[in-house]
Amino acid sequence: MNIRDEVLLFFRKNISKNVDENYIINNPNYLGDETNLLLEDFIKKFDIQSGYLEVDKYFNKLPSFWEIITFSRDKKQKYPIITVSHMIEVAKRKEWFDPE
Length: 100
Known about the structure:
single chain
């Protein structure tokens, strides 16, 4: 299996069966704390050896208690987009680099 297919399979198993290369992995519903676990697994599986992903730069933080009980959390995409196709390139290079 090639890297592209392995990365797609990884995200299909961990996020949704409907993931394709254009899927945005840092959509507003996916929080930074959830991402830490997902990306830790990704880094191990694909042997990412360098670079630094600043999670707070790309993913929403956990909502406050008030945001939870009032359903007032902002659900707009406000961070630079990370797609599965970007993560395919990260896996190929074995290093994190910021999406363009």
